[in-house]
Transcription antitermination protein NusB (Microbulbifer harenosus), 146 residues
Amino acid sequence: MTVTASARRKARHYAMQALYQWQMAGASLNAIEAEFHADNDMSKTDVAYFRELFHGVAKNLDDVEGTYAQYLDRSVEELDPVSRALLRMSTYELKNRVDVPYKVVINEAVALAKKFGPTDAFKFINGILDKVAAKERSVEVKADKG
């Protein structure tokens, strides 16, 4: 399958939901992943990307949270579950997938926050991820800003 933008978008959508479920239910990653494959039509999803984001966040959780937590005005535990899942996933992506432009990572997270997050969460997500990108992707961000 050729990886399309929409297949990646679906992968992020499902990864965010899987991370949310993992946070809330505490079930095993493999059980949650199996449930997603059973309950969703994954034919138009970049399944490898979904898996990388979902398992990558869990495997690198301390590093991921340590990266974005320094920019929060509250503790990680005080974040609403959708914002926490999005910040985890997007921070992982910014740190580990330099092949994906930082603007794409941020725009996708903002779109998901608008769809699933509490009112105005997208503004908060955008602000935190801008700071993460400025640190983790400094060369790319500086080149972009001219």
